[in-house]
Each structure stands twice: as C-alpha cells, then as structure tokens.
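seq as requested:
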Amino acid sequence: MNRIKALFSLLLLLASGLLLLSPKVTGQIKPNSAGGDPCTFPNPPDYCAPAPTPTPRDPRKGISLGAASVLRVDEITWDQSLLGPGGLRSNISILNDSHTGYVKLWVDWPALQLDPEIDLFNEAAPKYIEKDNSTDNPPAVLLKGLDDQIKEARRNGLKVILTMDHRYPLWITNESLPKDVKNEIKKFINKLDPYNRVPDRLGVDSAWGKWMKFLVRRYGLTQLKKESNRTGPAGEAIDCNTNFNNEVCKDYLRYVDFLEVVNEPNSALWPQGTDKNPFMAKRVARMFKTAQQVVRDNSEPGTIALKLAGPATSDTLRDDARITSYQRFTKDLLRELGEIAFKADGNFVWSHHNYLDVEEQRNCAPDDEHCTRPLICIDGDCKRATPCSYYTDVVGKKRISRVNSVAWVESKLERLVDGYKWQGMRDPMNHPAILLTEGGARLDRVFRIYACRLGLPQPPERFLCRCFPAVDIQFPCSKAPQNPIGGECVVEGDNPEYAAFVQAAGEKMDLIKKWQAALVKESFNLMTQPGPLSKGVILFTNYLTYTDPVYDTGMFDITGSCEQYRAKATGQRLFGDICTGEYGGNQSQDGRPLYEMWKMIPLPQGN
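struct tokens:
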C-alpha cells in the first residue's frame, strides 16, 4: 500500500510540474496584449511549432489594419494589431488563411514623439525614444509593438506598407497661416482638430524631415536586416529566427516595402487652401521632395532603397473650404510638383483610396460617364444596383458621378498636366503604377445608397442633422452641404423616423453584409483584371479585418460593444449613427460574407 501511495504522490508531483509549464500559466503572453495566442508572438515559447512556412500570397490583395494599435495599448485597440485580438482568431492568421499579399500598418508621430525633447537618434540622450519599453515610457511601448508587427509580417511572408497617420505633433503646427487661406476657413478654424494641421516647414532639416529620416533608417531594408545568423557580445552564435528578442536581433526583419508619406491630405488635413493658393498641394509636393531626398541620403552601399508612396488621396468629390475633390487636388499636386522641379524615381509609387468607387459603383472610364452599371448578384438574384437614395458623397450638390476615380487619376498621370508628367514607378505594361492602399464598402453607406434595392424605406429628406465638429445647429439634411462651420453632417440618432429606418436596416443586416461583399468583389475584379479601369493598378486593399463601428468596412464584426468604443476611441465619432458592427445580423466568428469572398479569390497563375 505504501508503494502505491508513493507512486501516486510521484505522479501527482509530475502532473503539477507539467501544469506549471503549460502555456496557460507560464506567463509567456505579450505585455498589454489582453490575452491571445503566444505562438503568434516573436520569440514564441518552446511548445510552439517552428516558424511558419510562408503561404502562397496574392500580390494584388492587401488588408489595412487600423491606426489604433500605434496610438495606445488596450483591449479595444489591440483588435487592430497584427498580433491581436485577444482570445479570437489573430489578424495574422486571417491574412494567412486568405492568401493576402500585403498588410498596411500605421505609425503615429505625435504618439511617439510627445515633445521636441524626445531624441530620435541619440541613445545616450535622457529622453531617447526607446530608452526602455516599460509602461513608464509609452512611446517605447508603442514603437516596440510596431516593430513586432512588422517582424511577424515578414516572418509570415507578407509585404508591408507603413503609412504615416494624418496627425502631427502640436509643438510644430503653430505657424501663422497666409491671410487668404485663413480668411477661407475663419468661420470654422477653431473647430478643426489641431492634430490634423499640416506643418509649414517640411524640408530635410525640419522636424518632419528628421522624423522621415528616423523612419527611413529604422524601417528601410538593409542586407543585415535579412541575415538571421548573428554574433553575441561574448562571440556566441545567435540564430535570430529563434531568438527574436535578443538585443543583437532587434533589427532582424524590421523593414517595410513601402513608406506612405501622407494620408488623405485632401480630406483629413487642413488647411486646404484656395483656388489661387493650393496650400495643401504645395505642402504635399514638398513632402514628396523631402522624402525622396531623405531616402537617397540614407541609402548607403549595400542598402536597398526604401520605396515611397503617396499621396493616398481620398476619392471624394466634395469641394469646399474644408475638403478638396480628388480631381482638383490631383491636378493641383501635379502642377506643384512641376513648380518645384520634382522628378519621381522608380522607387516612388502613386497611391489612392477608392471607397466611393466601391460603394457607388463608379465603373465608367473618364470618357464614358454614361456606361451601364453591372449586375450585382446576391444568392443567385442578379439586379442592376442603381443607387436610389439621397445619401451620397455629393448630397445636395450633384448626382453621383459614375467616373471611376482610379481610372481618372491614371489618365492624369499618363499625360502632361501644365507641362509636368509623373515619372514614378511603372507597372509591367509601362503604365504609371498605382497602389490602392485603402478602400471598401461601409455598411451604413450600403443601406443608405441602396435603400430601395434592399427593400428599406426611403429615408425622408427632412431628417434633422447634427454637424461635426459638434455645435448647437440643426437644420434639414438637404441643406447639409451649406453647414456654416464647414463640418460634416449626419442624421440625428434620436429622430423617431430615423429610429424606424435603423430598425428596418437592422432586420436586413445579413443581406446588407452580402451586398458589402458583392460590391467589393465587383470592384476588385474591375481593378485587377485587364480592362480600361485597371491600368497601372498593382494593389487593391480592403480597410480592416475586425471592423470599427465608426468606419464599418471590416470582414469581422467588432469584438467589443459600441459603448466600449465610445469610451475608448479618442477622436472617433459615433454620434447617433447606427453601430452596424454590433447591430443585427448573424454575427459569426467565421467572418462576414466579405471575408468568405476575399478568401475565395483565386490565386493568380504562378503563385
């Protein structure tokens, strides 16, 4: 009996030891990760499988995650990290399973350089940007989080686009404005987000130029960053594939394919300028010239030059003191590039966003605005999806333009604009190359634009509107474009007629999500298959995997609640609009129809 008791005690001791070593209690979880699979993190525990064999990738397909993961670290923003979210299918596995070729990540300047005393280059400085990565130094935590996402992307065979978020530190944006520009926006200048004010000084020696230099040095590709075999301080051999967190491996795989130097300057930044003084176009032209010079200055022998992208134009047709249409901005920018004698080299690619092309079916070539809209097929039912709602990008001003914005931009890049021609990267057919670095179909716009096709009641035009930035002004939505403060107007959430429309939309949410998938599929095919609209296009990107209730273009429903987002999402606007990521529909962890469609796109031949 004593032998049996002794054997039982030994087995119990062994079991306890195994439990202590199990992944649930070893504590090998990414700091501030809110849970998740540690096998997806750099330097995974011993029990994890070896580094993944790169999956076949479709170089035409990109997914952009949100900027949240480089603004702060919490359980909400981690939805937008390549390594997150906690407790659910990770974003890296979503991109792997769907054979996506590119991931777009973000870098936020004011979050990393909180004040001008933070040194970007001098490791001995008291406020060096990555002095340590403890919670006492938030920029270091965020910077390491970005590094880890880039390394994990490369480890899995993904190509990476790194985009500068449209925020600038307040300590460099206090310059005075030209009188004519200030007069143009004087009615609402105090209502604009101060972080979105583009700085005036953008030369190589400016704060922006030094920030650009920091990114080029940190995330440019050198031969050393590709080499996994390193030597430690004591002369020992170190394999960076299995020692990601070793100090000598800190730059291993830390490089990106494209650095996008600006984001939606014609709609997200201010001031836009005037007809005679295109202030924003002048600033972006200067960014282009400085960025290219910084890359050239920091490309030493043995270094492969970092590729640049821009201007990531919004495809809006709105044209007023607050926002410039993509058509006017494109022409202004090309004209300004000519004024400063800028010549793009083969490592600079034009970028553009195509949300409204997708949502409004802008499928006509620039010289054929009266073309027929294609059929939209849902569950075998194919119909002409003519927009039938008043809710459009140009409500109250003009009908929806059918001209495809990508094809229109390509036509301008192909020819002279006031004597200037874009000489940047070319596609295999020698057309000017275009990266579509964001796009998709927002659910709220789908059910507003196609209300009648979805069997929804037509929203009456007499809804009262509330405007952004928030002011105590209410008026019929039909007058929204004349908003005296130049803000953005939406339907008021507590309006009883609107509430009825929201309820009807919620009951149709499963069908609306199918329309989202159908619209993206149609646009993807038009942009990637040979035809008049696809010239130059080398990448089509959908914005978001796990969606955002403010900008619901995602492939999976939100992981939290709208109340959580309202409490945590700095600068995000939920106002009274329907929270489509949470409201109604058959929510599934297997993804929306959009994700199923994205996965089923056949790989191109040769992949």
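Residues 1-36, 390-398, 461-488, 570-576 have pLDDT under 50 and may be disordered.
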